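Checked the freezer inventory, then went back to the computational side. Two predictions to log before the end of the day. The first one is the construct we discussed on Monday; recording sequence and tokens without edits.
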Amino acid sequence: MTTIRAISNAVQQAAASGRFELLVYLPPGLSDAELTERLAVTCSDALVLLGSAGVVALEFSREAGSPELAVDSAVRDIEQALAPHPVRYLPGVEANVKTSPYLRTKALVQAKEFLWALADSANAPVVSQPIREQAQALLEHFPTLLEIQRIHETLPELLGPVPPFSRFSGNSETINVIEAIRDAER
């Protein structure tokens, strides 16, 4: 029943935003590094973050003929990556990791990308000079990915691990915010 709820939640997310998240329990006997390596091969369009209590979150930005097909192909890819281990899904973010170190790390990485987008002079017609300067000033003191990882290693209850690769570059949320700023200035 949990698997059906998890997939149903993911389909609803995909229908609403084109993005969806699947949460799985880390299979016993599989290290974090091995898991990340396996998922990078079959789920290259997903951000993989390791949360607390052996939970792995995969945030997909996958296009298919329908939300159901996108989620179905993601489920198949996860199961292929984790074979021969059985895959146990959680019903959704609300179930276990709503205020987790995983989400804090995700928010920090996304905030940094958002600041980069605001500071980028390529967005000059859209983002005013004072906003770009403020974003640049904030980035000067924003923690690097290495610093975030070190905080995780020291205080794992505060921040989750940094993903081995960033899937945020050019993400639709940042693009939508830049477009909203452009529309508001018209």
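The second is the one RB wanted added to the comparison set:
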Amino acid sequence: MENLRCSAKKRVRQPGRATIKIIGRRWVQLPVLGLLILVFMLGGSLPAQAGIITFDYSSLSSGADNGAIQSLMNTQLGAGKTVTVTGAFASNSYAGDGFVTGPLVNGNPTSYTLASTDGTFIKNNTSLDPGPDSDRITMAFSGLTISSISFDFEIFPDGTCPSLSNCGSGANRPDLTVLANGNQVIQYDAQTPGSGGSSHGFSASIYTHSPMSGPNQSELAPQLLGFGATLNLPANTTTLSFVDWPQTIAIANLTITTPNTPVPEPTSMALFGTGLLGLGFIRRRGRLRTAITNSARETPLMRH
């Protein structure tokens, strides 16, 4: 009996066993926690998600001013983001004083403009519009930066440049320049209708007659209509300017993209949560084993 009590005493009071259990429990917990963190960080848990905002100007009435355009854009931007618009005027009928070319309808030339596809567009404010003249549309954003944009555009012809040979000195031609924070990103140049010329991938109009030229003469006033222009912008861009020379430009269907924002994937979050539950189970089991061991240590041996 004495030998049995000694054997039991060794099994219960042997310090090495309790120490091994505690160390073992900690040894299991640390790698599991490290593995969970690694899965969360490297296992696709931080994908890049860009913000995309499209400004639809088709709901604006023709004649809407900076305030109305700005209000529409602020509504579409959402909370915490704003834009200040200057130099803009909405229209769904302007056709470059009749110099814009288009298809023949019943033998008479028409003008094919942004309004033909996008409805209302915004143009720079000119002497034909209420308010002060401006050679540019400027949009100053707050609460966000812009990494890229896409838009439709038009470089309108008019009587100030009836042909390339009569458009100021040198090789001047109407153009649209896009600025980001005041720095030039690109310049699109107008082309003579039917010439086959192009500017940055946008080709001259295939229509060669305008209401001004009539059906029997070719329109020579340079112009350009582009759909889906896409530009990558310098980092931290907050201000966009669309600059005209010499008279009128317009844009529509403007889409801005904000820089990528890390967002946890639902799958990775689920894995991380499941791992935490498993880690909690391991800790609970470890505490239970430790409690049993400690209880066994403190329980007096029964004497028979």
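For RB: Residues 4-30 have pLDDT under 50 and may be disordered. Residues 49-262 form a domain with the Jelly Rolls fold (CATH 2.60.120). Let me know if you want it refolded.
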